[in-house]
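#struct-pred

JT: dropping the chains for the assembly here, can someone run the whole complex?
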Amino acid sequence: MKEYKLALVGATGVVGREARKVLEEMQLPIEKYVFFASSKSAGSKIEFMGKEYEIQELKEDSFDEGFDFAVFSAGGETSKKFAPIASTKGVIVVDNSSAFRMEKEVPLVVPEVNAEDIEWNHGIIANPNCSTIQAVVPLKVLDDKYQIKRIIYSTYQAVSGAGKAGIEDLENGIQAYTNGGDYELAKFAHPIFNNCLPEIDVAMPSGYTKEEEKMINETRKILGKPDLAVTATCVRVPVFNSHSESINVEFEKEFDLEELISALKEAPGIMVENDLENHQYPLAANVTGHNEVYVGRIRRDFSVPNGINFWCVGDNIRKGAATNALQIVKYLIEH
Amino acid sequence: MKEYKLALVGATGVVGREARKVLEEMQLPIEKYVFFASSKSAGSKIEFMGKEYEIQELKEDSFDEGFDFAVFSAGGETSKKFAPIASTKGVIVVDNSSAFRMEKEVPLVVPEVNAEDIEWNHGIIANPNCSTIQAVVPLKVLDDKYQIKRIIYSTYQAVSGAGKAGIEDLENGIQAYTNGGDYELAKFAHPIFNNCLPEIDVAMPSGYTKEEEKMINETRKILGKPDLAVTATCVRVPVFNSHSESINVEFEKEFDLEELISALKEAPGIMVENDLENHQYPLAANVTGHNEVYVGRIRRDFSVPNGINFWCVGDNIRKGAATNALQIVKYLIEH
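RK: done, full complex below.
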């Protein structure tokens, strides 16, 4: 069996750190790992699979030594510069940034949904936005059965989605609340502790944020429905990790609610927790550390002929980033 | 000018305490105030308008001494028992509980929306659910201009809506996080710190929570549209005070977005903060302590012909409870 070489770019960030954990759990047939970061982190040591590794500085010649795969989680600018360099050297890049997601020749992949799109890659495969990934896993199941007509997203997104600085803002807010004192915001425009911020990523001319536009456009691309009616309101909440989403869906076809729930239960990558009377529904604090997408509060929306509301929770750093990217690597290895 | 007598029932609870502040600010022509609570709080002393008052125990003969108005904020059971007693003795009751809201002969009133319904009261006027009150203030303006066809609510509700025990759960969660240690949940089925709970009030046979059914049914009653298409997902978030709401609305009529925003700006009781580029939108932490409903993130929903998304924040203890109830008292005094 062939053994592979994998580069992890952005290995010391929030996603990179989790990717190392997921790699340890997945036990892929990879013989060599190299961990890259910016010059700031280069030289520092990490433990991985019981061995010590030194973080390497990412440079233009970093991919000369030959890799099979590179997973990029170091932000859009790093991806824009280095992903094309890697791919021209024959490395297949799985990119976590938004840099290439909407490019026509770049597949945008959630393995449970459109793994087949991996096949036509030209060296770069894009990992979708975290809030989109967790939503499309159940939505694909429902689209196949009942044909989705319209989606309305309202999100409850964790601070880890904004990286270390986002986590720091919540942590500092909690500490200032309990111990007094002031702090400077590292990431958000307003304090996130004791607040809900309806702004994620930058403002766009449409009046939507970039995060909202990503959810709308990426949902269409992944489901292969370029004209699908989708709208979104993306909100940051004072939760450390795992995004929650209130999703309203309208279908073309009629459905039986029990059958719909069964279809979700049978689908890979989905856990159904749907027992309101016994207070069972997905919760951010419980989903953290899991690779699956959790759904619950599944109920008919009586305001349209064929609609439902449901609640969807995913670990945005795992399934929303690291896990999904490494599932793509796994698919590449197995096919 | 006549001077009135007002009874405040549940004077020591979260809403009762805020009602005392609002009364101090409003300076209504009330000559006598009596503060009632359960036997547990009776006898304790409070400061009000510079004078000391003793909390009275609420009893069946409490209304014998003659009141013009009684504001009830002591939960459904107290209202069910004592509000009819008060009203048969000629007291006009403004009831904050859900006990009478959907009764045909009880007006359900948000003064900015349907003050005229106060006129046909039969002794009890119901104050709507907190999350409904803040939503219908802007929705009424939009319904009058563009005729609402469908509403989809997703809420981000503060723990103060669950009273002292709800506040305690968040406070204890924060303390346990910073200082270690365990705590017992006083109110919620799960920890609210670092979590979003898609369950407010009890489960109903429909698969919705009672809070969600309240939002649906009370919106219809207040707007006077019994068949309006409305759906809701109600979620508790780790915020101490002020509810935020993501509201999607579809209209029968076409609209011009600038005109729509102007209509909201001109309406009484509404503050518009709608400048995403400059990070200006309503925030729970900032709205706390204010009586107005704040709206922002107002933008066209491109997934339907005539729709918008907007973000709505209100102090659930003020406009969502105490302020609204006392605005009803003020209307009664002035008319």
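JT: nice. Chain B touches chain A through 55 residues (CB under 8 Å). Chain B has a mean pLDDT of 97.
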